[in-house]
Amino acid sequence: MKMKKLLITLIFGLICTGLTLGTAWAESLVMKGSTTVLPIAQQAAETFMNEYPDVQISVSGGGSGNGIKALVDGTTDIANASRFIKQKEVARAVENGHYPVPFGIAFDCIVPVVHNSNPVDDLSVDELKKIYQGKIKNWSEVGGKDMQIVVVSRDTSSGTYEVWEEKVLEGGRVFPGALLQASNGAVSQAVSKNKYAIGYIGLSYLNKEVKDLKVKGVRASKDTAAAYPVSRTLYMFTDGWPEGVTLQFMNWIMHPEKGQKVVENVGYVPLY
């Protein structure tokens, strides 16, 4: 009887040890950053973990600037960004012993959106610039109704904001009266509830709750992305040349039949 109890105790101990070792052996990957890249990262993480059950992936948003800061600080394996890293960010990373390596993973359009009741359908880049600088203040000035324009923009930690600033505002600043939002989803929601509003979101975030506008006669889509006036590459940055599970994931995300299918499924344009 004592032998039986001893055997049961031993077996239970081995099982517990096995479970502990199994947890210890599980590899982990952390991704932080852009809310534009977030739909890719979330679906890619889920699909990748289904394919490789021994890997645990943590994904969070917060903006491109925050993702790159996490890479600079050494608190993430991959920084997701909807803009390229700045030279000053590279310098800070190197000072901290981290070496950002860029990987283009998708192509995107930044799409101006308005309330569904707004009759305006097409704006030029110059009209968008003047709206966001506060120089065009009424929808009647661009062929719409006599209504005050409510400008909705992203906060300055957003890569989407920085690309918009570069390509639409040409280095200028959004006027102080703009309503700043922390994510693509928040912009979409704000515009959907305000008939006076205009905002801008990534291609993947287009939905029936808002109306997307043409820019210079071109409507944003996966087919027109190359010709669309406000477009950009989406990135994942690794800390040095990737190794281990990070390399495995980066190879997977760029594979035409794996990660690039995820890119297409969530509404962006595959690069490979």
Word description of this protein:
This protein is of the alpha/beta class and 272 residues long. The chain has helices at residues 2-25, 38-51, 64-73, 87-95, 125-132, 159-167, 184-192, 244-253, 259-265; strands spanning 27-33, 55-62, 78-81, 100-114, 122-123, 150-154, 179-181, 197-202, 211-212, 214-215, 231-239, 269-270. The chain is built from 9 helices and 12 strands. Strands 1, 2, 3, 4, 6, 7, 8, 9, 11 and 12 form a 10-stranded mixed beta sheet that branches. The N and C termini lie far apart (65 Å). The model is unreliable at 1-25 (pLDDT under 50).
Uncertain stretches: 1-25
Backbone shape: globular
CATH class of the largest domain: Alpha Beta
What is the terminal-to-terminal distance?
A: 65 Å
- Structural Rg: 23 Å
- The amount of helix comes to 25-40%
Helix and strand sequence? HEHEHEHEEHEHEHEEEEHHE
What characterizes the major β-sheet?
Answer: 10 strands, mixed
CATH arch. level architecture of the largest domain:
3-Layer(aba) Sandwich
Looking at CATH, the homologous superfamily of the largest domain is Periplasmic binding protein-like II
Q: At the third CATH level, what is the topology name of the largest domain?
A: D-Maltodextrin-Binding Protein, domain 2
Chain-averaged pLDDT = 90
Q: Give the number of DSSP strands.
A: 12
**Which class do the helix and strand fractions yield?**
alpha/beta
List the total number of helices: 9
Bin the strand percentage: 15-25%
Count up the domains.
2
